[in-house]
Every structure is written in structure tokens, then in C-alpha cells.
Design brief:
5-stranded mixed β-sheet
Length: 251
């Protein structure tokens, strides 16, 4: 009996490519916070414009996937510590994160950020300038701690130092602060702003989504993983992402 098992195992091992034998991450913990319509918890797991693409990529690559709802700052700590088979869903690539994380190829290109404001607030008008808006002392921008808004916007925040409030709260709490007048605007892609308002159960007429004249095109979003996730596994994901590159993407 022992010989039979040994021969059978040897046959199986011989059929598996050597890079896969070395992989310690046979399944990935995919950390997320709800961001309708991109990432939404459903009875079957997580769905949405980002989640559906990630689910399809992992399924076709033959890699196990477990979705875990994790506060955003905790997500970043897990990736930086690099002790687990952890990845984040649909994040921007930044120089700081590149120092401790691995990235797949881009999943999709984001929409340009708009200003989400209260409907009655006329201080930010359609076609306003990001640069002029950031210079206004009478406007408070809500910023999530540890979050990147893309390289261009991050650089403008650093250079122009707009008046802002930093929060560790997730998106629904940020929206409630905006509605209550405690902050004046949030930077979001239109899809996300619309999904957030609906998920929070608020009337869309309470808000406006205002485009900026000088906001550049949206940046690419990626799966970002800890260094414990082997490069060979990232390459398998990349190969599947390439195959699906002609699929519809969130825009």
C-alpha cells in the first residue's frame, strides 16, 4: 500500500511544473473594504466590477481565493509585514508600496476623480480647477489615512497642502460627515460615488458629483500582494490578466 501511494504521489509530482511545487501560497487571502459598485459583499462572497474580474482571473489561473473584509490600514500593515499570503483588491501603485509589495499587471483603468459635494454647495462648480480648489481655505477635503489617490493627486496634495481632515473611517462614514457639513468634498470616481450613495441609503439628490477641468485620466488599479506571495504565482495571474485584457473594464 505504501509503495502504491509513493508511486502515485511521484506521478503527480512529476506532472506538476517545478515552479508550482515551490509555491507556499496555494490560496490567497484577498482583503477588501466594501466599495460599491466595485466590491460588494453578497451571499456567494464578493461581487462587483472589480471583484468579478478578480474572481474570474483567480478561477482561470487555478489559484484559491478567500475574500476578507479588513479595515484599510490593517490591509496595508499585512502587506508590509509580509507574513501571510495576502493581497489587496484594486489599489493604486505608488513608489512607497513598491518597496514592500508585489503587483500584478493592471486590472483596469480607473475613472478620473470628481468632487463629491453637497447639492446645495455652490463653491465647487463643474469644470473647476483642482489646483485652485486645493488652494481654497474655505473648503475642507476629506482624506482617508494611508490611502492613495493616484500619483498626480497625491503630488498635488503634498505640494499645495489643501485644508483637509484625515480619517480612518471607511467610505460610508466619510459620506455621512460630508452630508452633515463636517467636511466639504471627497475625491471619488463617479461610479464609486453613485454606488456609495446608494449603499448608504441616502437620496442622490442630496449630493452632486462635479468634474474637474484639469484632473488627468484615471490611473491603473492592480492586485497588490505581500512579498510572501511568490513571483511565480504573480506571473500566473499576469498570464490570465493578459488573456482577459480585451474584456470590458470599469470606466
Amino acid at each position: 500500500m505504501g509503495k502504491t501511494i509513493g508511486v502515485f504521489c511521484s506521478f503527480l509530482l512529476g506532472a506538476i511544473p517545478l515552479p508550482l511545487l515551490a509555491e507556499t501560497c496555494l490560496s490567497i487571502d484577498m482583503h477588501y473594504t466594501p466599495r460599491p459598485p466595485y466590491l460588494t459583499q453578497v451571499p456567494q462572497g464578493v461581487a462587483g466590477m472589480t471583484a468579478d474580474r478578480i474572481n474570474a482571473v483567480f478561477r482561470e489561473a487555478g489559484i484559491g481565493l478567500v475574500w476578507i473584509n479588513t479595515p484599510f490600514l490593517r490591509q496595508l500593515r499585512l502587506i508590509e509585514e509580509g507574513n501571510g499570503c495576502d493581497c489587496l483588491a484594486g489599489v493604486f501603485r505608488t513608489p512607497a508600496r513598491e518597496s514592500y509589495a508585489r503587483y500584478t499587471l493592471p486590472l483596469y483603468q480607473d475613472q478620473p476623480f470628481h468632487a463629491l459635494i453637497r447639492a446645495e454647495d455652490e463653491r465647487i462648480k463643474p469644470g473647476a480647477s483642482v489646483l485652485e480648489t486645493f488652494k481654497r481655505a474655505d473648503l475642507i477635503l476629506e482624506i482617508k489615512k494611508g490611502y492613495s489617490y493616484g500619483r498626480w493627486v497625491d503630488a498635488q496634495i503634498t505640494a499645495l497642502k489643501p485644508r483637509f481632515d484625515v480619517t480612518t473611517s471607511e467610505s460610508e462614514q466619510m459620506l455621512k460627515k460630508l452630508a452633515a457639513g463636517r467636511v466639504d468634498y471627497i475625491l471619488m470616481a463617479p461610479h464609486e460615488a453613485e454606488g456609495l450613495i446608494a449603499a448608504a441609503g441616502m437620496h442622490p439628490g442630496r449630493f452632486r458629483i462635479v468634474p474637474f477641468a484639469d484632473m488627468p485620466p484615471g490611473e491603473n488599479r492592480y492586485i497588490m500582494c505581500s512579498r510572501k506571495v511568490e513571483q511565480s504565482l504573480i506571473q500566473r495571474l499576469d498570464a490570465t490578466i493578459r488573456k482577459k485584457s480585451s474584456s470590458p473594464r470599469p470606466r
